[in-house]
Design a protein that fits this description.
The protein has two domains: about 1-125 and about 205-335, TIM Barrel, CATH 3.20.20; about 130-190, no CATH class. About 45% of the residues lie in helices and about 15% in strands. It has 14 helices and twelve strands. Strands 1, 4, 5, 6, 9, 10, 11 and 12 form an eight-stranded parallel beta sheet that branches.
Length: about 325
Amino acid sequence: MKQVLKDSMIDMARWSGLMPTFRRIFAGRAAILMFHEIQQDGRAELMTGTSVPLFEYSLNWLRQEGWEIVSFETCLERLAADPGPGRYAVLTFDDGYRDNVAIALPILERHNAPFMVYVPTGAPKRTLQSWWLGLREMFRRGDTVTIDAMGTRIDCPGFREKMSGLHKVTEWIHQDYHRIAMLASTFNKAGISLSALNEAYFLDERELQNLARHPLASIGGHTTSHPALSCLDVFSARAEMADNRRYLEQLLQLPVRHFAYPYGDSRACGPREAQLAKEVGFLTAVTTRRGQVSDLKSNHFALPRVGVGGAFETRARFEARMSGIQSAAQMLLGSQH
């Protein structure tokens, strides 16, 4: 019911011409946009990334609405030096997918848009326990999926059933990140090779080196093995950050100043992880918590982002997040309880 009410508010604001008003009241001075895969054929990937049309639309919309797309460093400099009404957008991509180069990069070049790619060590080294790719592959392959650890058998003969089933299992994982380890036997039984999926979907070391030399690109840290850092002891969590930063700097022969927490919600990272990111030597750390940056006083080690993509994403919802109407809807609906 809440989602229906939110969507109704979004539609009303969009078609009544009130979006600019909401943007003046609720939008921040900077927005860090979060992407993962940029998919040419979203249906084939069960709508888990951002479609090319939506990606292009988002970049065009930012330009048309007066958001300047800048690098992370430029954004921080502008917020510190410019008290004016200018608004800045930072484009970020998590995990280092091959389609970020093959599909997204030509579009970014046309827009002359700087961007950041956060890379976990295990992606180019092919050791990543990329359970989300494993689950997607299971639902793509089969009309019945059994998740032993859940005690669940999901019948999914059609596209919508596959999307719904994948969403159900993914939500189960996000409720408790310790459950990730429980999927190993399921993947083995299904003949799913995470190493092979890593090879298919992620940039390798040479490709990452080439990308790092691109004038629009910056590379950030994303831990060694992509764990929920809050599930680790302090020494292991620090090592995940520090070892990843060291690996990337040695591989790329460039400084790595920025970091993204894996998962990035309140279950996965908090004040302890923010302090560790600072101690390791990063200048910023981004979460997956929704929101925009209002001013330079924002905590640079717990920065919110605006996600773009997913099974239920629409142009209207993207505009709503960027214009602030979604924040207004959340405040209004929250005040009713």
